[in-house]
Structure formats: C-alpha cells, structure tokens
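Re: that chain you flagged

S.,

Sorry for the slow reply, it's been a week of failed gels. I finally had a moment to sit down with the sequence you sent. For the record, here it is as I used it:
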Amino acid sequence: MGRSTDYYRTHPKARRKKVKTDKKLNSKPAQIKKRVEANRARRKAKARGKNVTGLDYDHAVKRFVKSSVNKGRKGEGGRKKGSKRKKK
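Prediction finished late last night. Pasting the structure tokens below so you have them in one place:
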C-alpha cells in the first residue's frame, strides 16, 4: 500500500477534504472531456486487441504510456509550454 493511502486511512478529516476536492475537480467540464476521451481511446484499443493493462491514455502525446509515468509528472501535464515530444 502507498504512503498516501495509509495517510488518508488514518486521517479521516484529511480524507473528507480530499474527497470534496476530488469531486469538485472531476466534475469540471474540461476534466469530464478528458475522461471521456481517455475512456473512448481505451475502448477502441481493447477492441483492436491491444493490452492496455497498467497503461493510461496520455492526452498530450495521444497514446498510451505507463501509469506511473503519466501520473508522476510535475505540474500541469508535466510539460513546459511549447515543448514537443518526439514520436517513435
């Protein structure tokens, strides 16, 4: 189990605050749009027979990347404005 999981299990007040904050973030139109796009891409990939276990859809590069990479970036998307990532 992760450190944050342990923290929120032992601090109910912090957990309630996090749930409230997450609910607010996840109900924003921009976040809903991102989630819909990711879900659509995931369904299409599965239909094509791609194994997407452990992968997240990266909106910036428009492909699947490891979850740890996608979630581990700092800041908004983890990229500086105007930077381009080379495609393989």
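What I noticed first: Residues 3-70 form one domain.

Talk soon,
D.
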